[in-house]
């Protein structure tokens, strides 16, 4: 049995930030930012990390992210991945 409690992201807070959302309100991350290049300007020479939003060092994981699997186990895994990406990001910040 699978129970879906909600399918809409709670991302209204992002409207006042440079974080890019798609037409459904999901946060756009990683390589998906290339598709949204008309609305997102990536300021760094490197490509965004997989879970990174249009704001370098700001990561999104789980159901709020566009193209996520929308399952608890996947969200937990993405959260663990985000920690690794944060470490990578912090190691490059001067």
UniProtKB/TrEMBL annotation:
Protein name (record)? Thioredoxin reductase (NADPH)
| InterPro entries listed in its UniProt record | FAD/NAD-bd_sf (IPR036188)
